[in-house]
Amino acid sequence: MATLQLIGFGSTGWGTLLLLGALMTLCVTAVALAIGAVFGAIVAAAKLSGNLILKTLGNVYTTVFRGVPELLIIYLIYFGGSSAITSIGKSFGYEGFLGMPSFAAGALAVGIISGAYQAEVFRGAYLAISKGELEAALAIGMHGALRFRRIIMPQVLRFAIPGMGNVWQLSLKDSALISITGLVELMRASQVAAGSTRQYFLFFVVGGALYLILTSLSDRVFNGAERRANRSMPSAMGQA
Hints:
Layout: H1 2-6, H2 14-48, H3 52-67, H4 70-91, H5 102-127, H6 131-139, H7 144-174, H8 186-197, H9 200-239
């Protein structure tokens, strides 16, 4: 009880702040993963295509966003986006600085980064599909859309689940860097609580424990999804 009072579940409300920060971390990570899935799917398709230009662009994307530090990308998105919004505002007669929303900047930055990793996950998942199944689909006259819906997409999603779990964990940790934009996610909440109370060790340990809880729960969710996908795959193939 004394510990709960100390970390702020009592009158000060620091515990509530940490819990809200953890919720914000989950929200920004989920949005970033969705953004990354769009970028990743497009880049994976480009790298799998026979077009040299598209393959080159896909390779450049994955090389740049996996090689450049995540913090630098967040800075570029946040300050670059703010500059662009300010320029647009000035064109409409508004004088002053317009900052890019912290949530949007953070989710977009982490999403672009995760997209580089998801592209490789999707590409590897596609290459894991048995060539015989694709050839059989062509032999029985399946058109492209039906082949994608019945064979390619279900198996790509199935093979991609373990890799997507890793990307989720990476994005969850990268979300801590968004605190530099002022977004009150878990890391920022821990910093505010620690700075206000001068109990740095306590609040950073609690913040780390909450990150471990989030990652552990995420592991269970992705492991369950993988088991379910592996069980349902034979029946899905039978329906195909």
